[in-house]
Amino acid sequence: MLERGKISGIQTFYILVFLVSATALEFLPAISFQVAGRDAWMAPALSTLAGIYVALVITSLGKRFPGQTLIQYLPNILGNWLGRLVGLFYLVYFFYTNCLVVREFVELPNLILPETPTILLKAIMVWLCAWAVREGLEVLARTIEITFPITFLAFVGSIILAVITGKGFTHSLLPLLENGVEPVIRATFTTNAWRGEIILLAMLLPYLARPEEGKRWAIWAVIFLGVILTANAIISALLFGPTVSRMTFPTFSLLRIVNIGGVVERLESIAVVFWVISLYAKTAIIYYVTVLGTAQLLNLRDYRPLVLPFGVILVALTYYLFGGNIAFVKHITTSWPPFAFIFEYLLPTLLLFFAWVRGRPTLGHSERSGES
């Protein structure tokens, strides 16, 4: 086994929450509001069902192939060559998603440090992630376990303080479904794509100390994310109303409305700290899964020689792949979701179906067993 470390259930919970909340808390309110208006808060609530579905499919596959990651059991389901080809496609999906995350990372710090070259911010982030990835899954999970409760509680606490001491709720969520259900369904398109990122659990299940607890922790993580993202969308809608659709970072703007002496800057700093730490965790986890899966696909004994080359390519591609802020936001709301749906929903569903079919004894086999 390339990775001998083990992670606990609560560490798995933190990893999955960071995977989605790192970007969803900042981007999703504006994206959903552009489509569904004041009903945008319903989108993350409905996406909770989609996230639970992915969790159930992943853990069902993991139960059928204990001790194996997604890349390892694909050949068992689809055959050697087709399984390896689909595994390669999954690695491309992981790597491309990581490029998006690194690109997303510079958005908020660039507002505060406009003179700092974005390539430098990306290089520092990827270098720190590369160090964590080389140390292994246990070290990475322990880092997340320490930082998550502190940063997340501070972030949520600052939002609560902003609501209490800010301008107050000046807008309404009523009437509900003013434009019907269709805009809400369309708004869930992007939120489902982000929620489906927990597909990475398929690469981590074998390394849980108790793999049988993976389903429970995954479902709790999805429910927790649903509550947090829905509450964030409701607060943004009540405070800013239609203005949300024109904001890039509604949650960051929410913290700016506090006006108690010098508290304003400190609350903004908390938002930036949470953004940096959560995206560090998300980048590192996807980075780790990518190099681990590549080593498994190539039957290598160690994934560590791949870490540095992948990091260099990652920084280079984020520099050349994506355009300006407007083009990038349009890309992650229109082009990326269909691509992500294939790997997060369609393929896992087909894999589970094929695994179920292959696992069923044929009639002829049953008859021969009875005759013997």
Describe the structure.
It contains 15 helices and no strands. It has helices at 9-36, 42-64, 70-78, 80-105, 107-112, 118-135, 137-165, 182-195, 201-204, 214-240, 250-256, 263-297, 307-320, 325-359, 363-371. Residues 361-372 have low confidence and may be disordered.
Entry keywords:
15 helices, globular, mainly alpha, 372 residues, 76% helix, disordered C terminus
SSE topology sketch:
Elements: H1 9-36, H2 42-64, H3 70-78, H4 80-105, H5 107-112, H6 118-135, H7 137-165, H8 182-195, H9 201-204, H10 214-240, H11 250-256, H12 263-297, H13 307-320, H14 325-359, H15 363-371
Helix pairs in contact: 1-7, 1-8, 1-10, 1-12, 2-8, 2-10, 2-14, 3-4, 3-14, 4-12, 4-13, 6-12, 6-13, 7-11, 7-12, 8-14, 11-12
The outline comes out as globular
Helicity level, as a percent range? Answer: over 70%
How many angstroms does the end-to-end distance come to?
A: 38 Å
List segments where confidence is low: pLDDT < 50 over at least 5 consecutive residues.
Answer: 361-372
Characterize the largest beta sheet: strand count, sense, and whether it forms a barrel.
none
Structural class assignment = mainly alpha
Question: pLDDT average, as an integer?
Answer: 87
Secondary-structure element pattern, one letter each: HHHHHHHHHHHHHHH
| Strand residues, percent | under 5%
Number of strands: 0
As a whole number of angstroms, the C-alpha radius of gyration is 21 Å
Question: Briefly, what is this?
Answer:
By secondary structure, this protein is mainly α. 76% of the residues lie in helices and 0% in strands.
